[in-house]
From TrEMBL:
The active site is at E373 (nucleophile). Keywords: Glycosidase, Hydrolase. The keyword Hydrolase applies. Belongs to the glycosyl hydrolase 1 family. Pfam families: Glyco_hydro_1. Gene3D superfamilies: Glycosidases (3.20.20.80). This is 6-phospho-beta-glucosidase. The keyword Mitochondrion does not apply.
Amino acid sequence: MKQIKSDFLWGGATAANQLEGAYATDGKGLSIADVMPGGKHRMNVIHDPQFDFELKEEYTYPNHDGIDFYHHYKEDIALFAEMGFKTYRMSIAWSRIFPNGDETEPNEAGLQFYDNVFDELLKNGIEPLVTISHYELPLHLAKEYGGWRDRRLVTFFERYSRVLFERYQGKVKYWLTFNEINGAQFMPMLSLGMAMREDENMLQSTYQGLHHQFVASSLATKAAREIDPSMQIGCMLIAAPVYAYSSNPVDVQFALEAERMMNYFCGDVHVRGAYPAFADRFFAENGIELVFEDGDLDLLRDYTVDFFSLSYYMSRTEKAEKDGDEAGGNIMSGVKNPYLKASDWGWEIDPDGLRIILNKLYDRYQIPLFIVENGLGAYDEVEPDGAIHDSYRIAYLEGHLKAMMEAIQDGVEMMGYTSWGCIDLVSASTGEYSKRYGFIYVDKHDDGSGTLARSRKDSFYWYKEVIATNGAALKQTSVSK
């Protein structure tokens, strides 16, 4: 039986805009995340064509404070080290480095902050895994350029990436270019910094913006290999198997087409270096005519990624004719799967789906896979003695890790696993503190109250044992302190 390899990268994952706080400190500019309100209405607000990127008194903006990682990073990294993290996936806030995004000279205070974070991680034996762009496009680029609609953002991103590679070579080995790049198809504001206009072809703008990101990712990969060939560059996609609701061939074909665009469209460009053939029909049927510049296709072909990283939260079930049975909580649409339960936020829970999608991706791409997001957003209750008994989180993660181990037995090559929101932070989908993912509880609440004190949940000790035994403890269900 295959074992998890000894250099497997166990750890946790976060994003700058969800935990750093200090949103206007040390020269940082505003990002699109800084003008996205908190609350369950968040997605409706930011995807309204009337969204104007302005702060408004009627809304709250929890990510302005986050959990103040900016001033607590040493304390938090010490807790990660106590759990035994081998790696920590984090992102860099583009607007800390280039406050507007289009400057030619970076902000030294922002660069120094991340130097400090990387030094602290390395001192604790934790390998940084860094996302260059994670849902936090500089606000100026969204307002003045229209986000990734504008080809000029390719140049700005390449400049930003080169600054990072040159500054942090020797400190950061593993990089991801764009977080959940295929999410642009569902969440163009988060991924592309684009508020959709009433008079535009949304699909045309979305896929043109994606093309610009593909080119920017290839240019970043080229820069990394020129600056330090030992760096490894990965893509990052939302991964979800798409099931046919029935064995009706019409449903099977519908699910196949959904899965291709969901999981393989962006993956093929990043890994295979070319647009997939099935995209041609999709573009033609949806009136999409992409604009290419000379050399674009050569760049995509010549600078593909070294590994494929993914987030996995749910599967998706589809049928051709929907009749009011949509899975409301799933951000990727689909219909309710009668065989699955759902989280407090309506996201369907499907550990077996992780094994399925890992096998599908590895069969197609044959490069190492890395699960860089997976976790359960849930309400946590603090007991009178301060304990947090999150057995539901342990059960969720255990089920998914066992599925990952089954995929390894199937022959899938896995680099590592970083649980999402390893420390409580602000949810990207709802802008709430109450949707908690972490092994570490942070005393901060949706009304803005809280001391920011950190404390260990039961899952903290469970995950510590999983890492210490390189996964062998997964057969145990008890929590030991």
